[in-house]
Specification:
alpha/beta; FAD/NAD(P)-binding domain; five-stranded parallel beta sheet; 16 helices; 17% strand; globular; binds flavin-adenine dinucleotide
């Protein structure tokens, strides 16, 4: 085993999770030691979402919840400074920048952390290769990269991201079908401006595709093909309200007092929060539950008009779904988790809303008739160079189909498939029954969407940053314990 003076940390993947981890390690763990980051992408620190792309591909959340430094929620806003001025979402009153610009923030933070770590004595290197396998001998890890080389480590942290869109209708390599829409700068280049486009899905990725087609001046018909037809909710402008009931302290107190926390308890906290603000919980709950049945266009119009509505109910739910949600999720009994999972479409629509500037574009295209939402889609097939889609509204025959189906949370990232198979084969980790990876041995960590046992919603930057900080603390605590021993 290596000595504590030479603790080696291997970080697999260099997206937002790795940046959060390195930033937290630079603040918590003094050197010397070794850090090796493995990342095959030329766009270091940006991961899947934040590489170069069209300016119309924007971040989906305001700066207050996009800091990758968990201990400093203002870190991103401070970096952004005047850079955000040209990207103001007028309705929200917040800068919502192209995702590539957010990628610059991640790159800056990642490089700054590496420099700080080197400064305090760490040996740091980046290996531009996939990790394809892992083995363990005693306390020491041995990782294999695709060039066949081996790399030793004491701690291994998987920061490999989440899944990619799934091909639900088996369209595979059909001409005119795009299986993965990102980067849109590349995939939309192949789309003729007057083409009849169908987009599979109606979530945030579908919204990215629609607003990017609009930004390129697309004149042809655009249809969202979806089973549910549910669109994401629309962000509301930030309010000063700080939750007093829906808080980690109240949830922890409930857990202490009763030994368990149920969904009814959490609903009770939200009810108290709303009643204190003079708002009607029953009305709010009825409106939320109608998401799955109400006409999506009518709902979008109402939500666009309510961006500045001062009521706190939806804001509290949206904020705490990401901040408190992961903690509360672990305390819930399985039947309550199952109940939440059965409302997945509704929950992700509320917890991951679209930004008002995109909602306005969607509304304009819906009003003009260029964009329609076709729900109840059951089948899409490629026929003679075109496509046929069958749904509640009858048959559609688009020329081009773009897949925007979000992968389920905790899906195995394709690029980590061989590594995950190797960890499982060696008995070093197992897949959680509801997705994600669970380490079976010490000194193996997972940060990001692939962490097993996490909540049923896809991770946000705020959640990833919190996990990264916890992992850095765990690594530093072990190092301190070894020093004392
Ligand atoms: C399209 C999209 C937009 C999003 N927008 C927002 C947003 O606006 N706001 C927000 O809060 N959240 C957003 N999210 C959610 C969250 O911020 C992102 O998913 C975030 O990028 C997660 O970071 P990550 O490091 O876990 O994963 P990723 O960013 O995906 O990075 C994982 C990295 O691991 C590498 N990798 C994978 N396997 C291996 C291997 N075997 N060996 C070496 N390297 C490997 C990959 O190449 C990749 O660079 C978005 C998610 C997506 C998919």
């Amino acid at each position: 085993m290596n000595t504590e003076e030479n603790m080696d940390i291997a970080i697999i993947g260099a997206g937002a999770a790795a940046v959060g981890l390195l930033d937290a390690l630079a603040a918590t763990a003094g050197g010397p030691g070794g850090i090796t980051v493995f990342e095959p992408s030329p766009h270091l620190w940006r991961g899947r979402p934040y590489g170069p792309d069209l300016d119309s591909v924007r971040v989906n959340a305001p700066p207050a919840i996009m800091s990758i430094r968990h201990s400093d929620p203002g870190h991103y806003a401070a970096w952004l400074g005047t850079r955000g001025a040209g990207h103001l979402d007028e309705l929200l009153g917040q800068p919502l920048v192209p995702r590539a610009l957010y990628g610059e923030y991640l790159a800056h933070t990642g490089e700054t952390a590496l420099a700080a770590l080197r400064e305090s004595g760490w040996r740091v290197r980046v290996v531009a290769s996939h990790v394809t396998g892992a083995a363990r001998s005693g306390d020491r890890w041995s990782l294999r990269t695709e060039d066949g080389r081996g790399h030793d480590a004491d701690h291994v942290v998987l920061c490999v991201g989440g899944g990619t869109p799934q091909d639900h209708y088996g369209l595979g390599r059909a001409a005119g079908f795009t299986a993965d829409p990102y980067p849109l700068a590349r995939t939309l280049d192949r789309v003729p401006p007057g083409g009849d486009i169908a987009i599979i899905g109606s979530g945030l990725t579908a919204v990215d595709v629609v607003v990017s087609l609009a930004a390129r001046g697309h004149t042809g018909r655009i249809t969202l093909l979806s089973r549910s037809g549910v669109l994401p909710h629309v962000w509301q402008s930030p309010a000063d309200h700080r939750p007093r009931h829906v808080t980690a302290e109240r949830v922890a107190a409930l857990h202490r007092e009763r030994g368990a926390v149920t969904l009814e308890d959490l609903i009770g906290l939200l009810r108290a929060e709303m009643e204190e603000a003079g708002e009607d919980f029953e009305d709010f709950a009825a409106e939320l539950l109608a998401t799955e049945t109400e006409d999506p266009v009518r709902r979008l119009r109402r939500q666009l008009a309510a961006v500045g509505d001062p009521r706190i109910g939806r804001r509290v739910l949206q904020e705490t779904a990401h901040t408190l949600g992961p903690y509360a999720w672990r305390l819930l009994p399985e039947p309550d988790r199952e109940r939440l999972r059965s409302h997945f479409r509704l929950a992700s629509s509320v917890a991951s809303p679209m930004i008002p500037v995109n909602a306005s574009t969607m509304m304009r295209l819906l009003d003009s008739g260029q964009l329609t939402v076709a729900a109840g889609v059951r089948e899409i097939e490629a026929v003679d160079g075109s496509f046929r889609a069958h749904g509640d509204g009858g048959e559609l025959t688009p020329d081009i189909v773009i897949n925007a189906v979000n992968p389920p949370p905790r899906a195995t990232p394709r690029a980590a498939g061989r590594l995950v198979a190797s960890l499982r084969a060696e008995g070093l980790a197992e897949l959680h029954p509801s997705g994600g990876l669970v380490p079976a041995v010490p000194r193996l960590h997972v940060v990001g969407d692939f962490a097993g046992g996490g909540p049923f919603l896809t991770s946000s930057i705020a959640g990833v940053a919190a996990q990264a900080a916890r992992t850095a603390q765990a690594i530093a605590a072990e190092r301190d314990a070894m020093r004392v021993a």
